[in-house]
């Protein structure tokens, strides 16, 4: 496979148009470095260790559901325990789901508050790094929790770190359209269009190819770092006899990695500065006003918002599958921390392979980003179907041996699913408003996951965990029809027109 980074100039800036910058190889590496820094938080913490640690801490301080005078007994299969949070008694398995739901609900507020501001000056990079350091510090603090009675504090740390992680990744995604426009291959194609050597369709094809390459590389780098840190965390857990605190140290190590590697991004990632912000703008209200005006003009971006609705549903379904799978492994099959860590390593490793596998399939078959995303989504929906077949008692995550191939299959879809989704959205984003629009994407991506955990948490409260898969199955199937309905070519043209017609000056801001 041809390396799209070959031939990247090693000068700070050159031009093909008057002010057209061209990315250097080091600048792209600076951007990719943040995926290596932050993605392990998702792979190691949110998707793997945090649900286990929160459930273990809650169970360690919890009581048996049927007799609250007795401490929780975690040595029996399908144990049911509750823990008191304020005046409420919550199922210990649902506690982490509720923590995630709270964090992603608050993410929506943060995303909108800083989104449009990130499009002005160098705030996009500044905000990204500020959230990176906040999130990493609160992740490191997990090492300070030494008692199960502090389960509530662990929940607070999860909420803060997940808000910061989500906000930083919204800004990270917002770099994709600008990086693609300034990539040497895209700049060269644009020059060829001006000279009549290539058509505008050729230019869009090159930009789409580069966008998918950048996104796929970032996913692979992130998952690669996540797998490495998971292996180290597994070694720590094994050396400390699989204690809950050993998993907390793995979480803290991930936070330390996030903190340190972010300095490489600080030094080398380009700022991609936007238009200066008017001096009289209210910094606390500007983003909300800007987004409000955009939503009132949503009819001008029908394709973009159709896709956002589809992705809201798809993202929620996929994230819910992850949480349910972890709880099934722990409570139904009584997998110990070693087996859970093996599964946690298999999924991102398969995701790394799957990212490049689907990129290869797309290029080999000449598929568009939309066609590829649709195919991945259909394949993804097989996972909850398989789990629900298990009610038959014949197969479908009935036997422990089924867990590993199911995890590998899931991983092969996961990385590419995320990569192609953000590239498709990037193509529908108005120029100069990337942070604003990716804040909306963030709500449908990271912040959409409040709904799934909330509903499935209620479903499994007093029922078999397997029943929870009905909800994500519906959430994976319904949006497929919306994706087919999206006209990408029209959406790209609408986005270009929107960026010209809705500057701050024209909108009275």
TrEMBL record:
SUPFAM superfamilies: MFS general substrate transporter. Pfam families: ATG22. The chain crosses the membrane at residues 95-114, 126-145, 151-175, 220-239, 245-266, 308-328, 340-361, 373-397, 403-425, 466-488. GO terms for molecular function: transmembrane transporter activity. CDD domains: MFS_Atg22_like (cd17483). It is a multi-pass membrane protein. Residues 303-509 form the Major facilitator superfamily (MFS) profile domain. Gene3D superfamilies: MFS general substrate transporter like domains. It is found in: Endomembrane system; Vacuole membrane. It comes from the Eukaryota. GO terms for cellular component: endomembrane system; vacuolar membrane. Vacuolar effluxer which mediate the efflux of amino acids resulting from autophagic degradation. The release of autophagic amino acids allows the maintenance of protein synthesis and viability during nitrogen starvation. Belongs to the ATG22 family. PANTHER family: AUTOPHAGY-RELATED PROTEIN 22 (PTHR23519). This is Autophagy-related protein. It comes from Entomortierella chlamydospora. The gene is ATG22_4.
């Amino acid at each position: 496979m041809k390396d799209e980074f070959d031939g990247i100039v090693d000068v700070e800036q050159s031009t093909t148009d008057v002010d057209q910058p061209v990315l250097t190889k080091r600048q792209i590496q600076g951007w990719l470095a943040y995926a290596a820094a932050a993605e392990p938080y998702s792979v190691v913490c949110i998707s793997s260790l945090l649900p286990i640690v929160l459930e273990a801490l809650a169970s360690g301080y919890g009581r048996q559901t049927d007799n609250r005078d007795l401490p929780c007994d975690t040595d029996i299969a399908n144990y049911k325990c509750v823990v008191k949070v304020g005046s409420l008694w919550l199922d210990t398995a649902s506690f982490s789901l509720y923590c995630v739901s709270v964090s992603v609900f608050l993410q929506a507020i943060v995303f909108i508050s800083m989104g449009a501001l990130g499009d002005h000056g160098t705030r996009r990079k500044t905000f990204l790094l500020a959230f990176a350091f906040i999130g990493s510090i609160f992740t490191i603090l997990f090492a300070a929790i030494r008692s199960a009675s502090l389960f509530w504090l662990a929940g607070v740390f999860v909420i803060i770190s997940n808000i910061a992680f989500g906000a930083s990744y919204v800004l990270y995604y917002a770099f994709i359209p600008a990086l693609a426009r300034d990539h040497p291959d895209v700049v060269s194609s644009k020059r060829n269009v001006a000279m009549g050597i290539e058509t505008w369709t050729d230019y869009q094809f090159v930009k789409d190819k580069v966008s998918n390459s950048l996104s796929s590389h970032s996913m692979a780098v992130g998952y690669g770092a996540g797998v490495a840190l998971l292996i180290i965390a597994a070694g720590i857990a094994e050396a400390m006899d699989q204690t809950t605190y050993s998993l907390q140290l793995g979480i803290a190590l991930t936070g330390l990695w996030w903190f340190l590697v972010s300095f490489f991004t600080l030094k080398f990632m380009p700022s991609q500065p936007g238009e200066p912000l008017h001096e009289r703008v209210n910094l606390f209200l500007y983003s909300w006003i800007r987004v409000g005006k955009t939503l009132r003009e949503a009819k001008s971006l029908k394709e973009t918002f159709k896709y956002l609705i589809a992705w809201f549903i798809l993202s929620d379904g996929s994230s819910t599958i992850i949480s349910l799978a972890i709880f099934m492994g722990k409570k139904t099959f009584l997998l110990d921390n070693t087996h859970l860590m093996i599964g946690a390593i298999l999924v991102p490793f398969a995701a790394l392979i799957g990212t490049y596998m689907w990129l290869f399939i797309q290029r080999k078959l000449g598929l568009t980003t939309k066609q590829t995303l649709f195919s991945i989504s259909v394949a993804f929906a097989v996972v909850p179907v398989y789990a629900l077949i298990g009610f038959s008692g014949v197969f479908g995550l009935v036997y422990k041996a089924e867990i590993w191939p199911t995890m590998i299959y899931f991983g092969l879809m996961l990385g590419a699913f995320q990569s192609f989704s953000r590239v498709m959205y990037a193509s529908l984003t108005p120029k100069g408003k990337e942070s604003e629009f990716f804040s909306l994407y963030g709500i449908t991506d990271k912040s959409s996951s409040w709904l799934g955990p909330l509903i499935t948490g209620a479903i499994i409260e007093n029922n078999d965990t397997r029943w929870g898969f009905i909800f994500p199955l519906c959430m994976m199937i319904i949006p497929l029809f919306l994706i087919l309905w999206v006209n990408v070519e029209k959406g790209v043209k609408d986005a270009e027109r929107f960026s010209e017609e809705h500057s701050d000056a024209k909108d009275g801001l």
